[in-house]
């Protein structure tokens, strides 16, 4: 007696589910013997023989006319191709048939099916069954290891099957074995096809290619390698280089193989191949390591390049190349023309510059004719071989050059036959000249012409570009001096020139006892215009502002652009402070006038800070500092106003500017650090991620709170550079942990508002992932709720771009903002983070508990993961876990710590 558990499925199999059927208990000794014999007969059989014996035995056991095994031929699952067919006592040819309107269709959709009689009544459109006069049918699906139906197994007959329970049991017993064998044959066929494809691909490569395992045994090669090595693939596979080749070649090859295996790096070396007939080839080997899917060394792949010809011409051309070193200008061109005549043993060589494009003129830089240099040999390029050279690169004529160009004066004079020429290119591959060699006889050494001319043309091109660069340098010297002291956008003096003029004005004021005023002009809320209308329009607006300020001052005064939306005005030799007030007010009112630009009507206001010499400072640095402090005060008082410097402003500004300067220094000199706080699976205690947090340890003030320096960084724009730095640092550290063998975890990085609004944010993130080698799925970007609601449409577009990269997205501090569920469902997010303010009193404050549980329920209903921040007590963890929150972070597990301290923490926390 035997009981078999058989797994199979139709539609359920397609969806990945399985149904467990228990066949009937076999009680008959004869039946059990038949089934046992069936199993015994199939033992040891594989492939076509297995299926032929299986269908034959099944038909015999069932006393049926037919049995077959079929397999789908495509993903559409509408055509079945038989693998083995038993019909009327023997195995017959395989065939294809449409499964629709057949009992096999029911089998693969709904699982095991039987039709004891009147099959045609159930399937009147099954033409094959009608043709074969089928009366009874029993079948079940064959299911792959992935739970997908891959074809039917059926027994059917012209009459009723006499022992239906027996054949049902037999089918169920053998279904798994048949499915596995069918799947194995399919995979084997695919692998064989892939092997033939890859081998054909290798054979199509003209360069010799071979590959070996880690023991140095050849695994295969392509046809080119067989030809160059003189060894067939069959004689090569399974052997080492010592088994196949000459001792010297094998010794070098084996050493280089060991180098690749030990360093896991590519290697390139030269060697020689000796043939029985005495021929020798100089070859260049390149060997590179091969790795399996686990990143383990699996062998190496090698290529061979025949460099025999290259070595032969290297020696011959070395002296030619070296002979041009040390020559410049006209000497260089004449020397090259002379050497070309000597190399090709010809009568004329021309080195010419192309002027006016490919239809322009050739201006001779050096023309040697019959041993002498001739001057002023310039000509129009049209209807000369130089025209072909400029368009088609290397061009040559073995003879009849005079017949081709009968009106060319040099060709006439020489009665020339041979010609070869090459274009002279600049570093952008533009044609800037031509070199030509002309001979009375066919040109000698034409087989080396392309190499020689290419080298000489490169030398001529470099010299021509050097001369052109020197000329442009001289022409642009005045322009460069202008750029050094002027703003490139507005053409106003820049900060450097402004400080120089201010220093001169102070010196003159000190001698003549007159006053000097500095006005710092800052545009109010210019960033909004720039962000909403674009930088191009913003730049145009700055130019208009610059012109308006210039119209408000005297010729003796100076207006400069200090950078961004800030301008500075130097008022020299002012008779009275009233004059300063008048100019400051005029600047403010002039800028406030409407500006029509590209269809927009814009109103730009300005804040003005004023400092005076000598009362607000006796040096240019002190005056600039005072004016800047006054500007900040003007902005604090509501903008669109001017403000004169006072000492108390300076004191407060000094402190802020000092801290800002220290922050800039910390950013530029890498003094910021990243601490990592683990994110924990609350149920198991396993580390599933880490949040990267920026820290600043000031050399004098100690650890400065992020609450103090992050807003400053946001306000000054430093946050963009800092954000990219922490992103790159965190990604690199996560990749380093992975390379160290630690299990991969996600790394969470906060996005600041200004950083999130960058137009190229997704491109920057993509570049960081590429540079650090971290897979996108291990990066989680956290964006605060308020940032997303600032500009919902833009936020959604940005998040979609990031999500398409494969990174995770989290809403940080969820519950503290004002998200609308209508918008929330449109955000492509993965995680919601419960703000720590709700976690702190989650077990004692009903309101906090209600908010937290609501967030958890919301996340669950939206198929989002939820992470709780600020967990410090065990009862908080238990409450969150009980209410469905699976992940969290906080001091209960670990405070933020350095990467060095975090590394061993990963493995220890995973064992909690």
Question: What can you tell me about this protein's structure?
Answer:
This protein is an alpha+beta fold. 46% of the residues lie in helices and 24% in strands. The protein has an 8-stranded mixed beta barrel, surrounded by 6 helices. Helix 27 packs parallel to helix 29 (792-805). The longest helix has 41 residues, at 164-204.
Strand content: 15-25%
How large, in whole angstroms, is the Cα Rg? 42 Å
Distance between the termini: 49 Å
E-strand count: 37
The shape, in one word, is flat
Helix count from the secondary structure assignment: 34
Mean of the pLDDT scores? 84
- Uncertain ranges: 1-27, 649-653
Largest sheet: 8 strands, mixed, barrel
Q: Helical proportion?
A: 40-55%
- Strand-pairing-aware structural class: alpha+beta
Strand order of the largest sheet: 29-30-32-33-34-35-36-37
Helix-strand blueprint:
Layout: E1 6-8, H1 11-14, E2 19-21, H2 29-42, H3 47-62, E3 66-72, E4 79-87, E5 90-92, E6 96-98, H4 103-110, E7 113-115, H5 119-122, H6 127-131, E8 136-143, E9 149-157, H7 164-204, E10 209-212, E11 218-221, H8 223-229, H9 233-236, H10 241-244, H11 247-263, E12 267-274, E13 280-291, E14 297-306, H12 308-322, H13 329-344, E15 348-355, E16 361-369, E17 372-374, E18 379-380, H14 385-392, E19 395-397, H15 401-404, H16 409-414, E20 418-425, E21 431-439, H17 449-485, H18 495-512, E22 515-523, H19 526-533, H20 535-550, E23 558-563, E24 566-574, H21 577-591, E25 595-597, E26 600-602, E27 606-613, H22 620-636, E28 642-644, H23 647-668, E29 672-681, E30 687-698, E31 702-704, H24 706-716, H25 718-739, E32 746-751, H26 753-756, H27 761-772, E33 779-784, H28 785-790, H29 792-805, E34 808-814, H30 821-824, E35 831-834, H31 836-839, H32 846-861, E36 865-868, H33 874-882, E37 887-888, H34 899-909
Helix pairs in contact: 2-3, 2-7, 3-7, 13-17, 19-20, 22-23, 24-25, 25-27, 27-29
